[in-house]
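Lecture 7, part 2: worked example. A protein chain together with S-adenosylmethionine.
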Amino acid sequence: MRFDVVSMWPDMLRPFVAEGTLWAAQQRDLIEVHLHRLEDFSLQGRPMVDDRPFGGGAGMVMRPEPFTRAVEAIRSQIGRRPFTVLLSPQGVRLDQTLAKDLAHQRALTLLSGRYEGVDERVAAQCDLELSIGDYVLAGGEVAAAVVLEVVARMVPGVVGRHASASTDSFYSGPLLGHPQYTRPRTFHGMTVPKVLMSGDHEKIRRWRAVEAWRKTLRHRPDLVGLNG
Ligand code: SAM
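Predicted complex, written out as structure tokens:
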């Protein structure tokens, strides 16, 4: 799967994609990540990618042309229009189900804003306006990092040998994941539940299912339709 991110400051994302899961997935040719500097797509002779808001008000708004020119350049590079997402606190909220759906795309382009946000006509040309949560970041780069990692983990093969996405919280329904333990057996007076060392896989499976429910009811009853 191919990811493109268009941002004023793509260098913020370079170290993020050069380590860990995303780096390993690129090394194994499971994903490609391309970072683009928005300014490279500004109109000739006009390095500005932002301007004052029509109607007045504080701050600057990001102009539409550099974003649409960037998407057009990516489209001609890959020979088809990528699924295009504008990162915005006003978008639909990202969750695991949406991440799984997005991972079916062959090419995903993320447009990252700054300042007061992006001219509304960019959203009108995107396939999706996407928020990572009900709070406002200074810019879309951190949101892009979140979307990159969450969606890439859903690409077959990216989460492999050392982990399984299928036991994660939210993966196969609204439940949180079960508690995890490793060595030492006793830590600060707390011992690992005996069942996990019993070698009885059916008992362990049942214990984990019950604990996943217990944790969900304690931390996120809203996920299973109950009030907090
Ligand atoms: N004035 C805008 C509003 O009230 O909706 C907020 C603009 S925000 C300071 C600047 C940029 O950060 C946005 O254009 C978007 O790209 C990014 N951003 C901020 N919060 C976000 C969130 N929760 N999810 C996704 N992107 C976000």
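The chain has seven helices and nine strands. The first strand starts at residue 2 and ends at 7. Keep this in mind for problem set question 3.
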